[in-house]
Write a structure and sequence with these properties.
With 504 residues, this protein is an alpha+beta fold. It is built from 15 helices and 17 strands.
């Protein structure tokens, strides 16, 4: 039985839309926006201040005939939709549960969703043919003679709605009513009367038009962009201080790669000294450190003043600022922001030239190696075996603070910097395997010739900063606040009672 609803725009214009029990509310939104000359991608529907689920038909929405629906503006940031694709047999046998699950932005078209699923990234490395399937058909009923490949189009069933044409596949998840939550898509295939060659031509016309205009503009920008600017594009923020310190060991390699630059100008004394200290064999450690001679860590023997534990005004202000920051509501990052963040992190890792990796051995000796971005986990294992006395014993290298074990593999997915996210100085612990006998564990780890190069670990002295009178730290403490309040070089704020320590 036909009925109608009234859709009211934000400027109080209204239009009447005819509906039947099977009319989807997403179609109601599109028809209303078309009559009101509005873009349906920018609006949602509310009924009595509650958002209406656009993915369901009118009969299950709970709306009555003649209901008044309001158009409200939608957020510009697309939301994430969890899409589950039910894959038919025989491909479904190789997939756990027969379903591929991935999150996509709500403004992604159905065709691009299918392309993502068959690309291998969303299907856990499995390449599935969904959009370019062909079925052979011979000219005779006996199965002999010449044949032709005919296109087998994907047929999608989404909550009872069937999508089986290229026009349907151009619709986005949002246009189908999915702006949040999850959706299940059941996949099937249907043979068409169109040859596979003609279907591929139609696919190129339907789904490449929106990408074609952008190509000339991008190429024009790349043509007009200076060469110097394109070279500076990959540069990101500078690395931490440890990387800058370790770059001194890297300079001789760069000078060897560009010998022409050193012809006109002789190397300086500092560069000559660095060349002498740089090992020719990449497996040779940059430096070797002996085990501590005492049982107490050297850092624990440093003298500590009583006022080092007294909080200062700066500490209290930082604590208050953090409490205020944590009390504010923060929105979750959108998919685009997450992608930009991941791209910035990838660019930052790509800009790293080298890192200094320290490997600590079971007898508390350690060695440093200079690692370039091309080195893998196999290099670190080979470097350790190059200096260890019992190089036939099994061991594994563990990243600090985690249970992540660096694999002894030379594959492209086992890069030390790219895959393990190593930047700056880092400490890696060597752990014996269970099969190593106790007698070997008690022996010195390093070879004798390598141990002779070892040096003691020097603990830097803490920098002591005193005030004008030479007493206590430079920052005013809570006990000094009453005396120093109002002075020009101190923070003249009164401390709340809850921050004061000790008795009054």
């Amino acid at each position: 039985m036909a009925s109608h609803v009234v859709v009211i725009a934000t400027d109080l214009r209204r239009t009447t839309i005819k509906v039947n029990p099977g009319t989807y509310l997403a179609d109601v939104l599109q028809q209303a926006c078309k009559k009101l000359n509005l873009s349906s991608d920018r609006y949602l529907i509310k009924h009595r201040q509650k958002q209406v689920d656009l993915s369901i038909p009118f009969r299950t929405s709970g709306l009555i005939p003649g209901a008044k629906l309001e158009l409200v503006l939608k957020s510009n940031t697309p939301s994430a939709i969890q899409v589950a694709l039910q894959v038919p047999l025989p491909e479904g046998r190789e997939i756990p549960g027969g379903r591929l699950i991935q999150k996509f932005p709500s403004d992604l078209t159905i065709w691009k969703v299918l392309r993502q699923f068959e690309s291998g990234q969303a299907s856990n490395g499995r390449n599935i043919n969904i959009t370019a399937r062909g079925v052979a058909q011979t000219t005779s009923s006996s199965g002999s003679g010449g044949g032709q490949l005919y296109y087998e189009i994907p047929v999608l069933n989404i909550m009872g709605r069937e999508l089986a044409s290229f026009d349907d596949f151009q619709r986005t998840l949002s246009q189908l009513g999915y702006n949040s939550g999850s959706v299940l898509i059941r996949l099937a295939y249907r043979k068409t009367d169109q040859t596979l060659f003609d279907a591929m031509a139609d696919i190129g016309r339907f789904f490449n038009e929106e990408e074609a205009p952008a190509a000339p503009e991008e190429s024009e920008k790349e043509t007009n962009k200076p060469a110097e600017e394109t070279q500076d594009t990959p540069m990101v923020e500078s690395q931490p201080d440890p990387v800058k310190e370790s770059s001194r060991d890297q300079q001789p390699t760069e000078q060897e790669e560009t010998p022409g630059s050193s012809v006109d100008q002789p190397p300086s004394e500092d560069a000559m000294a660095i060349d002498n200290s740089q090992p020719s064999n990449p497996l040779e450690p940059v430096s070797v450190f002996l085990a501590p001679s005492g049982t107490v860590p050297a850092a624990a023997l440093a003298a500590v003043e009583e006022h080092d534990y007294t909080p200062s005004i700066a500490h209290a202000q930082i604590h208050q600022a953090r409490l205020q920051e944590y009390s504010r509501n923060k929105r979750l990052l959108s998919d685009k922001e997450l992608d930009d963040k991941a791209a910035a992190e990838a660019a930052k890792m790509a800009a790293i030239k080298s890192v200094l990796v320290k490997v600590r051995f079971p007898d508390n000796t350690s060695s440093d190696w200079q690692v370039s971005p091309s080195e893998t986990g196999r290099f670190l294992y080979d470097a350790v075996r190059h200096v260890m006395a019992n190089d036939d014993q099994p061991f594994h290298l563990v990243l600090p603070g985690t249970t992540t074990v660096i694999k002894n593999d030379d594959g492209p997915s086992n890069g030390l910097i790219k895959d393990y996210k190593i930047s700056g100085r880092i400490l890696v612990n060597l752990v014996w395997d269970n099969g190593v006998p106790p007698a070997v564990r008690k022996q010195p780890f390093l070879k004798s010739n390598v141990a002779q190069q070892g040096q003691q670990v020097k603990v830097p002295e803490p920098l002591v900063v005193s005030d004008d009178k030479g007493k206590g730290p430079a920052l005013p403490t809570l006990q000094q606040t009453d005396k120093d309040e109002g002075s020009g070089d101190r923070i003249g704020k009164k401390i709340p009672k809850w921050l004061k320590l000790g008795k009054k």
